[in-house]
Amino acid sequence: MKLFLDANIIFTAAYSPQGASGYLISIAETGAITPCTSLYALDEAKRNLALKAAEKLPTLGKLLPLLTIVSEPQPEKVAWAALLPLPEKDAPIMAAAISSKADILVTGDRRDFGFLLGTTSEGVLVLDPAETVRHLAKLLA
């Protein structure tokens, strides 16, 4: 199962590895899931971590080998995602999740992605971290 991790999930996994986001990374260590992200999302996570909790950057460095970096989406896919409607900063996230053929887009951004939580767009289910953990528990049981 391929999970596309939004920047806030990567940030949170590095900041607080004991939470749901960190747990998703630990599942990846078993090979049961393939966590992926884009350079766009990873850069945002790094930037925010450097600003808010620079001491956690080494933890992020330890997570990086577990992440598959996917190609950036085509501009027309980003334009499509913006029509959902997603803010300009979030459209590349949804577009990359779809372009990479992820099964789930995991995001903690309820403000911008909240209306998509629990829905599927072009084959990608959008879930928050806790719901993703519950979903995986059912599938991997």
Q: CATH topology, anyone?
A: Rossmann fold
Write down the CATH class. Answer: Alpha Beta
- Structure class: alpha/beta
Share of residues in helices: 40-55%
Describe this structure in words.
By secondary structure, the chain is of the alpha/beta class. It has one domain (2-129): Rossmann fold, CATH 3.40.50. Helices cover 51% and strands 15% of the residues. The protein contains 8 helices and 6 strands, in the order E-H-H-E-H-H-E-H-H-E-H-E-E-H. The chain has helices at 7-15, 20-28, 39-52, 57-63, 75-82, 91-99, 110-113, 129-140; strands at 2-5, 34-38, 68-70, 104-106, 120-121, 124-127. A 6-stranded mixed sheet has the order 3-2-1-4-6-5, with helices on both faces. Strand 5 and strand 6 (124-127) form a beta hairpin. Helix 1 packs across helix 4 (57-63) and helix 2 (20-28) packs parallel to helix 8 (129-140). The longest helix has 14 residues, at 39-52. The protein starts with a strand and ends with a helix. The model has no long low-confidence stretch (mean pLDDT 96).
